[in-house]
Amino acid sequence: MTKYNVIEKILGDRSYPRQNSGQAFAPSNIALCKYWGKRNAELNLPINSSLSISLAHLGTHTTIRMAEGMDSISLNGMPLTLNSRFSHRLIEYLNLFRPERDFYFDVKTDNNFPTAAGLASSASGYAAAARALNNFFGWELEDNLLSILARLGSGSASRSIYHGFVEWEAGFHVDGMDSYAHVLPHRWPDLNLAVLTLSIGSKPVGSTEGMKRTVETSVLYKSWPEKAQRDLDQLRLAIEQKDFELLGETSESNALAMHATMIDTRPSVLYWLPETVAAFHQIWKMRSEGVKLYFTIDAGPNVKILFLRNDLDIVRAVFPQCEIITPFDFSVS
Ligand code: DP6
């Protein structure tokens, strides 16, 4: 089963664009129960279901037009060469949708979160690309199919199709037609995040390679699918009941368990810097003093703090360099 087979199922024959341009925005997202490990690397089919929170207006704007003679790609206003890593990955994705071999795309991608925030851009990037293609070609696809198209670009992009709390069901079919995200019907405006950027250097090992290595060599990984399922159930409950302690404890434990499997790989993948560990200790110390802060962390050194709005002043005072995010501060058009 290839990506082309999946596209065939969703779109049938490739069509020509119905518009001069297709534009879209998709929010970035942070997982509280992580996607870590693939059952199918070609289709980005996950071993476990995951749950995230989208970052409202922080994300990616993408505009797609037809180009003459060759593809043209720009990122944050700067034209990129076609053999850069970013272009290479995007062109492979665009290849899936060309109505004929010598059809070319002009793609403008703009991330509105500060590059220095150290947030992953592939999630919002591929979700915005899928939506922009949908508008450009006039496919009028439902969100669950857009979520599948986004997943083919990057797994976590399947969740960036929606705002709010989002669950991506792992599914079990070989073609992955049951592996897409949906939004949970709960809002929690008091729930805030703070991104603590400790390094903006490129990571030693990307997520795709990191999870491959983990699945292949980590002994601890064997316990991950069960742990992730348990955490997912707890998170759903916490969100339903607005139980912040349960949400925070479960998210933190899930992130640490994911990192335990990474550390257990051969060769080991350790994303933490001394500053990362210092931030953990600071958060734990504050919690022992009664301030309810929790953290989550992805495949990198930067820490995301979960807190409730009434602790905003404390968070700002203790982590003056952090970026505050209000995930439920969005309007759906
Ligand atoms: C740790 O979605 O970047 O952020 O599917 O290979 O593109 P690919 O991986 P990616 O992995 C994200 C991993 C994570 C956890 C998460 O977002 O759920």
CATH class of the largest domain: Alpha Beta
Q: Give the strand tally.
A: 13
* Overall pLDDT score: 95
% residues in beta strands: 15-25%
Structural class: alpha+beta
Bound molecules: ligand DP6
Quickly count the domains. 2
Radius of gyration: 20 Å
Major pleated sheet: 7 strands, mixed
Per the CATH scheme, the topology name of the largest domain is Ribosomal Protein S5, domain 2
Parts with pLDDT < 50 across at least 5 consecutive residues: none
Morphology? globular
CATH-defined architecture of the largest domain:
2-Layer Sandwich
- Oligomer state of the chains in this structure: single chain
Order of helices and strands: HEEEEEEHEHHEEEHHHHEEHE
Specify the helix fraction band: 25-40%
Number of helices: 9
Distance between the termini: 36 Å
Kindly describe this structure.
The chain has helices at 3-11, 85-94, 122-137, 143-153, 207-217, 224-241, 244-263, 274-288, 312-318, and strands at 21-33, 38-40, 45-46, 50-67, 72-75, 78-80, 104-111, 165-168, 181-183, 191-196, 294-296, 303-308, 323-325. It has 333 residues and is α+β, with helices and mostly antiparallel strands. The strands form 3 sheets. Strands 1, 4, 5, 6, 7, 8 and 9 form a 7-stranded mixed β-sheet that branches. A hairpin with a 6-residue loop joins strand 11 (294-296) and strand 12. Helix 3 (122-137) crosses helix 4 (143-153) and helix 6 runs antiparallel to helix 7 (244-263). The longest helix has 20 residues, at 244-263. It is globular. The chain starts with a helix and ends in an 8-residue tail after the last strand. 43% of the residues are buried. Ligand DP6 binds at residues 31, 34-35, 44, 50, 120, 122, 154-156, 207-208, 298-299.
